[in-house]
Automatic annotation (TrEMBL):
Function (record text): May be an activator protein for the gylABX operon.
Swiss-Prot/TrEMBL keywords: DNA-binding, Glycerol metabolism, Transcription, Transcription regulation
Protein's recorded name: Glycerol operon regulatory protein
Stored Gene3D superfamilies: 3.30.450.40, Winged helix-like DNA-binding domain superfamily/Winged helix DNA-binding domain
């Protein structure tokens, strides 16, 4: 399967600007109901779901009860929550991917050699999504697992993935991305971020120093497909208290680049026409 390029939709009056005649609005709304639930909103009332999705209470109720009939939602009569069955939706994608299984042994070797956590992610919309990970120690306040998402603009893997976009794709990203300040170091000025991405593209790797979370320093390198397109990123993350930016560049970047090249080589041999699917 060819690479799936990231898609960014510009909204006009709250609605995506481009929709084909094939668009099934009920499917879109059903997915919106599922996405209304997240870590900070694990249990929602009918009114909560209606408010989060912009649906009427009657419509939200129909979608919730249909999802409950299908086993994706449970309710006690007042509160609704997702069931573990929703994992099947993501598993169908992940189980078809070549990248995680190819990358995992390389991440294990990389982490064992430098004693730092390593991950692989892909770009989805304006976020990165983790598809493989080896955790040596927990250095963030939140747990990171396969499927975890972070805003691309504040992460080293995000910088690598954004730097690999075409000019048109990158401009589409800036049209829809919210560059919120997550720490005192987060780059939120679009022009400054564009300059950083140009530097990343030139040097072939990216370092992000405490932009996503205080104390977190990470470095990432691109993973290319056989046609040279950046389709994923691999990183190493460390705590700023035990490393410096200079030591990260000296000690972590070389083995990281070596791991990226090894993953690319295995992807090319094992599945030349597939990027991560």
């Amino acid at each position: 399967m060819d690479e799936v390029r990231p898609q960014f939709e510009v909204e006009v009056d709250g609605e995506p600007a481009h929709r084909g005649a094939h668009h099934v609005q009920s499917l879109e709304r059903g997915l919106a109901v599922i996405k209304a639930f997240h870590a900070d909103a694990a249990e929602l009332t009918l009114s909560d779901v209606a408010r989060a999705t912009g649906l009427t209470r009657a419509a939200a109720r129909r979608f919730l009860l249909t999802l409950a009939d299908l086993g994706y939602v449970r309710t006690d009569g007042k509160y609704f929550s997702l069931t573990a069955r929703v994992l099947e939706l993501g598993y169908s994608y992940l189980s078809s991917m070549t990248l995680p299984e190819v990358a995992q042994p390389h991440l294990e070797h990389l982490s064992a050699g430098v004693h730092e956590s390593s991950s692989v992610s892909v770009l989805e919309g304006t976020d990165i999504v983790y598809v493989a990970r080896v955790a040596v120690s927990r250095i963030m306040t939140v747990s990171i697992n396969v499927g975890t998402r972070f805003p691309a603009y504040a992460t080293s893997m995000g910088h690598v993935l954004l730097a690999g976009l075409s000019k048109a794709e990158l401009e589409a990203f800036f049209l829809v991305a919210r560059l919120d300040r997550l720490t005192d170091r987060t780059v939120t000025a679009p022009d400054r971020l564009r300059t950083e991405l140009r530097n990343v593209a030139e040097q072939g790797w990216a370092m992000v120093d405490q932009e996503l979370e205080e104390g977190l320093r990470s470095v990432a390198a691109p993973i290319h497909n056989r046609r040279g397109r950046v389709v994923a990123a691999v990183n190493l993350s460390t705590h700023a208290s035990r490393t410096t930016a200079e030591s990260v560049e000296t000690d972590l970047v070389p083995p990281l680049l070596e791991a990226a090249r090894a993953i690319e080589a295995d992807l090319a041999v094992g599945a030349p026409d597939r990027v991560h699917g």
